């Protein structure tokens, strides 16, 4: 995937954009975000900076996924991973299809929590993933304890499918089908690319 153009979200009255993670530019920022109290329980990547640098280098070298910095009005404030689900370990835990794409996210900066940014940003990136013509489903597997995130995914159009026991967590598998997403957001998606 290439960088998504900046879009204006009328519900926020702000610009949303995503850009690919760049190691030197973002490693310290991402390390800081993964050590935030609201992130640690669900991501469990609160490691030392040298350990995190090695971890991020491994993630960036993995070609089945793309790492993104989510921005509001050009201010970096969130981290996103999009991936081909069948090539991910998740593909071993449900009936995946080669065109299924997945998404993970975290709001890194605490001052952006509870401000209503997660849903419009999630909607933007799901819309982007569905630009791939063969992709008809976007999947996610938030920690089953993360009720706020499960609620946001549900509001976006994801349906809870089943509980999964993954190696690192008890997860809630959720799937957003193209038809449901388009039905839910018809006429309200971004049409202004800058």
TrEMBL record:
Is Transferase one of the keywords UniProt gives this record?
Answer: yes
> In the UniProt record, does the keyword Transferase occur?
yes
GO MF terms here are: N-acyltransferase activity
- One GO BP annotation here? response to antibiotic
Q: In which pathway does it act?
A: Siderophore biosynthesis
Protein keywords:
Antibiotic resistance, Transferase
Annotated ranges, domain N-acetyltransferase:
16-179
Q: What does this protein do?
A: Acyltransferase required for the direct transfer of medium- to long-chain fatty acyl moieties from a carrier protein (MbtL) on to the epsilon-amino group of lysine residue in the mycobactin core.
Q: What is this protein called?
A: Lysine N-acyltransferase MbtK
